[in-house]
Amino acid sequence: MLAELCRQPGCSLRRTSPSSVNGFNSAQRHNVTIFSSPERAKGPINWAFSFLKKRNQRSNEVAFASPFAGNQVAPLSKVKIQLLLLAAFIAGCASVTANLPPITDEHTGARYHGRIVWHDLLTSTPAESRKFYGELFGWQFEKPGIDLGFGDESSYMLIRHNGNLIGGMVDVNALNRDVNISQWVTVMSVSDINAAVGRVAADGGEVLTQPTELGSRGTLAVVADPGRALFAMLQTKDGDPAEQQPAHNEWLWNELWTDDVDRATTFYIDVVGFETEDHPIENSDHKYRVLKADDKPRVGVLVNPFEGELPVWVNYIRVEDPAAITARVNELGGRIIVEAQPRSIGGTVAFIAGPSGAGVALQTWPLK
Amino acid sequence: MRNNIMRLARVFLLLTVCLGLTSCEPPQVYGSVGYSSYGGGGYHGGSRYGGSVVVGGRIY
After folding, report:
1. pTM of the full predicted structure?
2. Every domain of chain A and the residues it spans
3. pLDDT tens digits along A47-77
4. Testing the interface with B: which of A55, A78, A89 to mutate, by most B Cβ within 10 A?
5. Are residues A182 and B38, on separate chains, in Cβ contact within 8 Å?
6. I need a labelling partner for A309 at 20 to 30 A (CA). Which of A18, A79, A188, B56 fits?
7. Which residues have a Cβ under 8 Å from the Cβ of A234 and sit 6 or more positions away?
8. pLDDT tens-digit series, residues A5-48
C-alpha cells in the first residue's frame, strides 16, 4: 500500500539501515519504512509525509492528493491531515517486525541445510554468564546496535570471538518465566522453514514457536523433538556463515543425547532430511550415529550418557586444554559436570555448566 | 522558529505513541520455552552418575 501511495514524481520508498534509525535503542531496532523526496528539506513532517499533502498557499487548508482518485484533489483540514498522519504512523508502527542482525557479517547467499549455524544462550544470569564465557573463552558480548539510552540494558546480545560472530545471549529474566529455562539453544539451518516446521507435529515433536520473521536474521522457529530435546530452526535471509574449520574457543560440534536414538533419528530425517552413519563405541553396545547432509557430517546422536536425565542438545567448544578450563569453572560461578577425560579415539573432553546452569561441552581437536 | 519547535514536538509525540504501542520489546521467540533439561536438578554431576559417564564428541 505504501508503494501505491508513493507514486508522485520525486517520491521514493527506502528502508533504513538499522544504525540509522534514530530513537531506537538496540532492543528496539525495527525495520522502519520511510519516504524520501525532494521536499525533505522543508522540515520533518513535510519531508516524511510530503507525498500526502500539498499546501494551499492562499488559506490554511491542505489539499490531499489521493492516489486512488486520479488527479482529483479533495480539500482537507489540517486537523484531518494530522489525524491521517497519526493513523498512518500508528499503522506503520504496529506492522513493524523485529529486526535482529544476520548470523554472519558476510552475505554468503548459501544455505547449508541441516548444519548447526548458530547458538543462543538463554541465561537467567546474564552478567555472570558474560564474565564466565568472557574469561574462559575470550568471548566478547555486544549489543546488536547503537544504544541511545532508552530503557534498560538490552535483553539480547551478540557474542563474538576475535571478531567472529558465534552466537547470541538472551536474558530470560525479560521473558518473565516462572522456571529457570537457562540453556544453550542449538539453531539448525533449513532451506524451507515452513515445510520443516509443518512436519514436526506429525513426527511426534512439538512446535513451541511458529516460524517468526526476525528481519535481517531470517525466520526462526523453536521446536522440541519427540524426546523433548529443544532446538531451533532458522531459514537465514541472506545466507549461512561460510563453512570453515573452527578456531580454538569456538563451536566445534553438536550432539543430541537422547533416550531413543532410532526414534530421534527418524524425526530429524523426516523434518530436516539427513542420512545416517553409525560408528561403534568402544566398550559399549551402543553406536555413535552421525547425521549427514550433503554428504557432510552435521550432528551426532547417542544414547544419553546420563541415565534418567532429559534428552538435550549438547554443544562442543574446541579448546586447547579442557583441564585448564575446568580448573577455573568453579571460581567463575559454573560447575563441572564431567571432569576432563581422555577419549578412546583420541583427544580430551569435559562437560561443564555456566552460572545459569546451561551445559556446554569442551573438546580438543583434531583427534590425536 | 516556534513552528519548527511545534513540528518537532509533534514528531516526538508520534514516536512516543508508536513506541508505546509496539512495546519496544525484543523478539520473544523463546518466550514459549517452558523448561530446560538442566533445570530441576538435571545434569548436576558429582556422585550422582557414579563417575563413569563417558560423553561423546566429534569423531571426524
Report:
1. 0.74
2. 2-95, 116-363
3. 444 434 444 444 444 433 333 333 444 556 6
4. A89
5. yes
6. A188
7. A103, A117, A118, A187, A188, A189, A190, A193, A217, A218, A219, A220
8. 344 444 444 433 333 333 333 333 333 222 233 333 333 344 44
